[in-house]
Amino acid sequence: MLIFLALALQLPMPDVQRDFILTPKQAYLMLAPDIVCGPTVTDLAWSVDGKMLAVRRVVDGSTPDTISKRFEGLETSLAKQTAEILLWNSQTKALKVAFSADASKVFVGKPSWMGKSGTAFVSVSVAADGEGTFDTSEGWLLRQSGNVRVSTSTVDTRVLSSISPTHDIGAVAAVSRNGSTIVRFFDSTARLGSPFEIKEAGHGIQWREGVACVPSYKQEGSRSRLLGWFDIDRRTGALTPGGAPPYVDTPQSQDMRIEHAPTQVRIGEGQSVRVTSLAATGNGDLKAIEVQSGLISGDGGQALIAPNNGAVAFTVQGVALVRALAPISREAFLKARAAAERTEIMSKAKQVSIAIAIYMSDHGDQYPPNAGFFDATLPYLKDRSMLGAFNYTFAGGQLPAGANPSRFPIGFYSGPGGRAIVYADTSVKWEKDP
């Protein structure tokens, strides 16, 4: 089935052990990666529906020639760097530069998404003197129809902007030097609501399922103690006691998680790579055969699963890539995996049988001794690991008188639902478990 799927989609042949993730509900095939952009990508953010990916990157204007001159001391000036937010459509593969500015004059924050509106949000710190001292900040909504600025701070006013990751709502809190804090809510069209004075919002606004929350603190000497959380009524600005917002409020995949190798693979003196995998959630409660991790990248940086389980975005050396996830039924995948394992085991058994045949031709038609089977056949194999799981059941030497070589088993590999048996005539057959 997997072979036909790959041919129909004109995909590279998938690796059953590497390109598939098996969760308690179903399996997923990771397709070959699409290149989104690069370099140098610093952050990734999926929209709630998994259709759009926001990317923050810094573009360096250096060329190979200027880099060479810089190393030789012939060039001392630094190339212009541009901070950008890009929006990538996972369905059309279209890439749009939604925001761009001189990185020496602004600091562009990490992008986030406003609910299901398809509108991204980014905070921008602006250096008034152009020397890297950021005096003011702005909040921008990045929309397909164009960008809209929803907030601007001044030297006398600090602005804290935030958006709900689950609902199409955001808030701006303007904190003045005299301590007053004015809050205004806005929607995905950038329409601002009525202003309310809420002093507790001076610590920022967080979200709990679309409800704006603010913390209340009590000053005790030089320290502040958290008294609790209050919900803001967006129509009146009234505060009512509420619960604390979740630690992670951005929608997450419920079926899979990102895993990084606990130990890095060494590739040279002082160098290493980090293996990044996609795994099913709750592996500790499941048997090994019930779940399977898939390899995202052998040298990956950050990685992020789309909330709809439709793709996984990741970075490799500053380049952003996306691997789409194709859902497949568990039953179909388990059958395909078992068939692939049987094929692999049969191939190993055939190679061992050929090694035995070559040994016999070099030793007067004598079968390898059981006690020294590993050392006897190893010179005839390219991969010594093949012998680790092979069970050699024959004593060695000559077959018993009258034995039929095509029906006399001399060893086997165990596999899913059966075993690959090597016979004395070096033929290999698959035998199902009783």
Fold and architecture overview:
The chain is mainly beta. It is built from 4 helices and 32 strands. The strands form 8 sheets. Strands 1, 2, 3, 26, 27 and 28 form a 6-stranded antiparallel β-sheet that branches. Strands 8, 9, 10, 11 and 12 form a 5-stranded antiparallel β-sheet that branches. A 4-stranded antiparallel β-sheet has the order 4-5-6-7, with no helix packed on it. The longest helix is centred in the C-terminal third of the chain and has 33 residues, at 330-362. The two termini are 26 Å apart. 29% of the residues are buried. Residues 1-10 have low confidence and may be disordered.
Number of E strands: 32
State the separation between the terminal residues, measured CA to CA: 26 Å
Q: What does the overall shape look like?
A: elongated
State which percent range the strand residues make up.
35-45%
**Rg over C-alpha atoms, rounded to the nearest angstrom:** 31 Å
Q: Report the uncertain regions.
A: 1-10
Mean pLDDT: 85
So how many helices? 4
Find the structural class using helix and strand composition: mainly beta
Task: Give the oligomer, counting copies of the same chain as homo and different chains as hetero.
Answer: single chain
* Sheet with the most strands, sense and barrel status: 6 strands, antiparallel
Q: Tell me roughly what share of residues is in helical segments.
A: 10-25%
